Amino acid sequence: MILPLLACIIPAIFLVEIGRYWRPQPDQPDSFPGWAGFLSVGLGLLLGTAVLAYTVFGESGSLPAMILLPSICALFAESCLYLFGILVSLISGLARPYLRWPAGLLLVIPFLLAALGYLGDAFIFRVVMFGGALLASGWLVWNRLGRWFALTYLLLLLLLLLGVWAIDSQSEFLFLPAPLASIASQLVWLVPGLGIILSCRLLGWVLADEQGSFARRLFLAGLLIAPVFLLLAWQAATASAWDVATDGLGGIFMLQFASIFGVATAIHLSWNLALKRNAFIFGFAVLILVIIMGANSFGTFGFDGEWGNVPRARTARRAEMIDRAILRYYDQHGQYPQALADLTPGYLLYMPVPFILPGEDWCYQGAADYYRLGAFYRDFFGSPLSLKIYAQAGTPPETGWECGERLAEMKTRYDPPP
């Protein structure tokens, strides 16, 4: 997995060097009529190669497809921008769009994308479609932010924080209407891409602006990028920890997105920067990937280097936090809380969930003179399930605990077959 993610930089660099001869200059768009042909031929060749790889090698064809994916997304985004520019020119009537027959080849791209989705991996098809559109949208919005940059930046941080919460709690946004819940679930994975685009564009601003102090611009960009990186790493570490608990793919998705959006944005920026700046922007794309790799490794191995310990350790720490809140409640009221909901928000700002099974809450039973706090527990995915008691006091009854009665049904659902 790691080598293909790093190897995707090689075709990206070749794409940048070839495209530099066809890329139109902002002040001379008609002097480079071959740009539409370059986009059409380049995107057609890359998509065709990916489709051929799947046709010939089947699932093994995902390896070359993953290597080409950032370049495909970059070209698809540039094609969207090209067609958007033509549409704006036609609607406004202020300028006559410069069209030649190669532009018509772009109409073939949807058929190649459909073939990729049918013959290959539907996930890769969605990444090309939504990833390319997201890249194009991000570049268009960046150029029009102006005084709205600060508000947009704060909104992005809020969305990234929401994504961390959604991954941590495994929230399916069921409190929203069904259409909004579906959109929110998709945003959880799309917003990190926007964070990567913003970070790369900030570095591009530092490298492209020749006026003012370079050190001052670099310092300012670093201050803005650092919180984005922190939230990206936090989400990647949390997703990979849940992967240990559930045999999921969230951490792998984060790695793929870091590679796709980082390298694709680097391609776009390299066409707009001086040649000597290319090493900086591609190096920054690698840095993003390394940070997400490190966060993924931390969520999988933890501080002690033990594989799979993070979900168990996080659950134990959260149980300790809840237990301390229960004891504070007892000190003030002289009895234990009847339900964990009695602890929020007075004793806990929010109720963290166990990090073992998605959708499962704590097992709690409380009365005036006793309580017990537990959770359904397993070492990692595929291991036998049990009911673990993290804290208790007094003498809880032997019967009447809902979680104890559910254990047999839960073991049937989650335990490995004999």
In short:
The protein is about 65% helix and about 5% strand. It is mostly helical.
How would you explain this protein's 3D organization?
By secondary structure, this protein is mainly α. The chain has two domains: 2-301, no CATH class; 310-414, no CATH class. 66% of the residues lie in helices and 5% in strands. The chain contains 14 helices and three strands. The protein has helices spanning 2-7, 9-19, 35-57, 62-92, 101-104, 109-119, 122-142, 149-169, 178-208, 214-246, 250-270, 278-301, 310-333, 402-414; strands at 363-366, 371-377, 386-393. It has a three-stranded antiparallel beta sheet with strand order 1-2-3. A hairpin with a 4-residue loop joins strand 1 (363-366) and strand 2 (371-377). The protein is elongated. It starts with a helix and ends with a helix. The relative contact order is 0.08.
Q: What is the fold's blueprint, element by element?
A:
Layout: H1 2-7, H2 9-19, H3 35-57, H4 62-92, H5 101-104, H6 109-119, H7 122-142, H8 149-169, H9 178-208, H10 214-246, H11 250-270, H12 278-301, H13 310-333, E1 363-366, E2 371-377, E3 386-393, H14 402-414
Antiparallel strand pairs: 1-2, 2-3
Percentage of residues in helical conformation: 55-70%
Biggest sheet record? 3 strands, antiparallel
Query: Mean of residue pLDDT?
Result: 82
| Strand tally | 3
Strand order of the largest sheet: 1-2-3
Structural class: mainly alpha
Radius of gyration: 26 Å
Provide the succession of SSEs: HHHHHHHHHHHHHEEEH
What is the domain tally?
2
Through-space gap between termini:
32 Å
Shape: elongated
Low-confidence blocks of residues: none
Question: In DSSP terms, counting alpha (H) and pi (I) runs of 4 or more, how many helices?
Answer: 14
- Beta-strand residue percentage: under 5%
